[in-house]
Design goal:
This protein is of the alpha/beta class and about 280 residues long. Helix content is about 35%, strand content about 20%. It starts with about 20 loop residues before the first strand and ends with a helix.
Length: about 280
Amino acid sequence: MPRSEPGRLPGPRPRKALGQHFLRDSGVLADIVAAVSGPPGGVVVEIGAGTGQLTEALLAAGHRVIALEIEPRLVGHLRNRFRRHERLTIVEADARTIDLAPLLPADAPYVAVGNLPYFAANPIIRNVLEQTRPPLELVVMVQREVARDIAAPPGQWSLHTVSIRVYAEPEQLFDVPPEAFDPPPAVWSSVIRLRMRPEPLVPPHRIPAFFEFVSRVYRNPRKQIHNSLARGVWLPPGGARAALERAGIEPSRRPETLTVDEWQALQAAAAEVLALA
């Protein structure tokens, strides 16, 4: 159960215009730290350090931490609060675009952790997943509906689900109520773990074309895959059914039921049908 504490957090106040909600619950902080499997000799990259509540908990657990924060006033607060801590590096940066490799010790494994702002969670996760030096895993807090979408069971996959599972295996860990934050958001949150695959399920050089293909078909996710393919991708007359037959996919299925492997097979089959036209 969450253990919210009275009184205001130290440091700057959250800014509503930036959608800031600072995690204040000591129980939730402890649960997040417990979920982080810091590799021996490795580093924890904290995304969105805010006022430093999670930073402090990670340091207390013995981790070496690289804390990313985009807002200058919070960066200043963090540097003042932790000015004597040798296991902490504070970096002013945008986690949606940063290349983490130059910040990391050579060959050091790392994990990423953070309470992500709702509006930026998806681009942050995507940027971390696509790093040239990806983490071993991510343990991040997002809006509960987003977490459920990412960790959806087979047969209920959205385009977002597919885009995550290409890189990682998701697991929804626990929910967090609004009162765990200052100020409380209007929705619940969830902490999820994304365990990185040794290699993406789609070869890296094919990923842009793969996502373009899948996104076109997913424009009609509730329709049968035959209709979604025919409307989303140009193929010659009868080409959608021919491509599905080549890929071994029943035309009456819906896009949300296809696995990453089936999407790849369908993309290849559609290209073959198009080449024969």
